[in-house]
Amino acid sequence: MNQSDDYPLSAVPTDKRKGLWSMMSILLGFTFFTSTMWAGGTLGKSFSFYELISIIFIGNLLLGSYAASLGYIACKTGLNTVLLGRYCFGLNGSKLSDFVLGFTQIGWYAWGTATIAIIIVKLLELPDTWLTPLMIFFGFGFCISAYIGYKALEILSKVSVPAMLFFIGLCFYKGILDIGGISEFIAIEPTESMPIAAAITLVFGTFVSGGTQATNWSRFAKSGKVAVISTLAAFFIGNGLMVFVGAFGTAIYQQADIVDVLVAQGFMLVAILMLFTNIWTTQDNTIYNFAAAGCNLFRTDKRRLVTLFGAALGTVLAVMGMYNMLIPFLILLGTFIPPIGAIIMTDFWVKYKGNMPDLSSIELPKYNIVGLSAYVIGSGCAYASPWIAPLVGIITSAIAYTILLKLSTVKNQQEQSI
């Protein structure tokens, strides 16, 4: 397969693996995203400073651990989530995870496309008639680096991530000056209320879809250590920073988006640069994720064609108003996606004892009833639970898969002895 296609239906060869800086740049660029700040803004209104820090820490520790565990498996096998799904869901059954993961990435892409168009119209005071043309322009423009492949994503992220860290530092410094010091910021009281379980679910849900599919890059890691460190840096530290940025802006300026905050602080040029780097480095990764799921769903290695199709679909959803459904969408992600990753991890460690056979050398069933049943159980429990839905989904699906796998093994042994 041509390297430019990034191996959508096979393992990444060992001689094509990447180091820590390459991996970390891409994954941090992926998690530096506006929507996470919006979630942080919601939390910033509802909790005191120390409560907020605790929720961000717990939520992102769960998210980072979950994503890093999948990252390690991806590195060891060279496979991404949708290909790993064939082992535990079956050749055709894995299309369930393809659809769920692909749909969520299209939802993110639509949200990001709409976001940049709306912000530009607002910043430049353009008429609303510009919204649709801008959505179409950015909907296809942001997919260029994903269309090219891993190398383009890497180059863009290596430039954008340091720039964004500088912009965030500048925002923090000016914000603390404007409010009168750190003690004044810490003393801000919440104006709304929110259950802690829902808050942790929201933090986890902001990027659990991306965490589940970060394997698209961690499978390129040179070692399991590189995969784990880079994934933790992105999903524990990077995503946590984005949530805090949203809470910080809301507390001081009543604006969750750092772009709006930078404008309020008088940094118009910096705001525009932050807008483009922030959204582009996530949009290209998001549509790359969709392409990976789409290639497995349709059993095609034409990743670039699937990328263009996904960009078109995301653009249509953006024009139709996906922008207004962010918070419910995040809660939904936190409920139905974690069981997929949990079952893949359980399959790797329990069934295959950390040593999966090559995808090309193993005969897999069309439908793995054990895996599909465990997913239904885990998702159902997460949806019905009043507690932390993502954690419930992970635990129950892992337990269900283990029990059903044992029962299936016993049944097969009994049938063979007859």
Descriptive notes:
The protein is mainly α and 418 residues long. The chain contains 19 helices and no strands. α10 (196-213) packs across α12. The longest helix is centred in the last third of the chain and has 31 residues, at 268-298. The protein starts with 19 loop residues before the first helix and ends with a helix. The mean pLDDT is 91.
Brief summary of the model shown:
This protein has 418 residues and is mainly alpha-helical. The protein has helices at residues 20-31, 34-44, 49-77, 81-89, 95-123, 131-141, 144-148, 150-179, 182-186, 196-213, 215-218, 224-253, 258-264, 268-298, 303-320, 326-336, 338-351, 369-384, 389-417. Helix 2 packs across helix 12 (224-253), helix 10 crosses helix 12 (224-253) and helix 10 (196-213) packs across helix 16.
Secondary structure class reads mainly alpha
Q: How many strands, which pairing sense, and closed or not: the largest β-sheet?
A: none
- Number of DSSP strands? 0
The gyration radius over C-alpha positions equals 21 Å
Straight-line distance between termini: 46 Å
Beta-strand percent range: under 5%
Low-confidence runs: none
What is the typical, i.e. mean, pLDDT? 91
What gross morphology would you assign?
globular
Please bin the fraction of helical residues.
Answer: over 70%
Series of H and E elements = HHHHHHHHHHHHHHHHHHH
User: In oligomeric terms, what are we looking at?
Assistant: single chain
- Count helical runs: 19
